[in-house]
Amino acid sequence: MLVMPEPHLDNSKRTLSAMDAACIIVGIIIGAGIYRTTPTIAAVTADAYWLIGVWVLGGCFALIGALCYVELATSITDEGGEYAYLRRGFNDSTATVYAWIEFWIIRPGSTGPMAILFGEYAHRVFPLAENEMLSGVIYAVLATIVMLAVNLRGLKTGKRTQNVLTGVKVIALLLLIIVSFAAVFLGAEVSAAQPVAEEQASQSTGGFLLAMVLVMFTYGGWNDVSFVASEVKDPEKNILRGLLIGIFIVVVIYILINIAMLMTLGQQGLAGSKTPATDMLYLTAGEHAEKLMAVLICISALGAVNAMLFTSARIYHALGRQVSAFHWLGQWNNRLHVPARSLLLQTIVILMMVVGFGLQKDGFELLVLFVSPFMWTFLALVGVCVFRTRQKGLGDEQSYRTPFYPVLPMLFAVSSLFMAYRSLSWFDLQIEQQDLLDNNFFIFLSIFTGLVVVSAAGVAIWFGPHKPNSGEPAG
């Protein structure tokens, strides 16, 4: 295999501040998960202390992963984030397999659910059709296309939109928390008539592990800052600041939301609720809570869609700069400061996912079901890259070093492997419980996933030779 010389980093691309990076992180993490996972977590934890404890522990694991990513981002300054880390940490073939699966499964399967969720809740605010699924899909497609147009207008427009959406999202969530706390402390009758369960015998190990899987899923997305790390100004300082600020904001908000839900609904009420945030608002803000909550979730989902589109195209741009067969994806639009071709192509695949899954019952859950094992497996490999980076002597005296090495990188890699294992176990359980083997769409999806995995190996072998970089023509 012919290995190309490392591309020269264009410092003119470094236009993102630490706050821009933090907004990307908050925008991706705070999506739909917090509204869907909290009832199940409440149901499998023994009491409020365990409930809040798993959220704190999940935040600690996210922080550990973030510290590992800062070391990789400051030691490996190539474009492409995780693609670059896997290429330098392992080899070109591993990175190409990752980029291929990311393009067809992980990225569309992560962005698609957020667009579908936006459509579901936008329909509640203003239906576009009598058929709820059709109305939701129309909204989801429109939202994705609008976010594509925003990002194609250039880097400045994309990051400003993300900053505004994230700001509105955080302010709205804080107002939700303040209203709930105020109602409780002012003595309003907000209890859900389902008191917190008295003491349970003990916290079961199985319940704790399931709670951690759901919490870690809800915290997922902080790693996406790696895809724009090469565009962050003063990376040695600002990548760390951006990650710490972003994760700190998310952890605080998640813990406060859970406390507010416990105070208003009680643990049993929270565990038995299908729409805990709406129920909480109904008790504290009155009958208009449902539409208010729907608007809030729409903003959260839209921010996640924009952030994932903003970051994803950087992976395939990096692939195009490394692999000759995909050189046309490596074009960077110097006027707009975006990889326009990669962005457009990835959006087409996302739209296919949105339409295909949005018109299926439980399409959101199916997407998450297929994405999770792949996502966590590659995160575990990235964790191993921290050890590989040090062994190869990559980086310099300015590179950040993960504290308590090798304990923290080992914790990150092992916890990610555990998540991959539990995701596969959950996948197997869902097949049994829902009789998915009799579902034609599930069978088609399984065949498609198998073809993607097999073709990934073929692409890595067939398109192995790499090319020297010849600059950045506008595209």
Summarize the structure.
With 475 residues, the chain is mostly helical.
Jot down its keywords.
single chain; mainly alpha; Amino acid/polyamine transporter I; disordered N terminus
Topology of this protein?
Blueprint: H1 18-29, H2 33-44, H3 48-75, H4 82-89, H5 92-125, H6 132-152, H7 155-185, H8 205-219, H9 235-271, H10 276-285, H11 289-322, H12 340-358, H13 363-391, H14 407-434, H15 440-462
Helix pairs in contact: 1-7, 1-9, 1-11, 2-8, 2-9, 3-8, 3-9, 3-13, 3-14, 4-5, 4-13, 5-6, 5-11, 5-12, 5-13, 5-15, 6-7, 6-11, 6-12, 7-9, 7-10, 7-11, 9-10, 10-11, 11-12, 13-14
Describe the structure.
By secondary structure, the protein is mainly α. The chain has a single domain (14-462), classed as Amino acid/polyamine transporter I (Up-down Bundle), CATH 1.20.1740.10. It is 72% helix and 0% strand. The protein has 15 helices and no strands. The radius of gyration is 22 Å and the shape is globular. The model is unreliable at 1-9, 192-199 and 468-475 (pLDDT under 50).
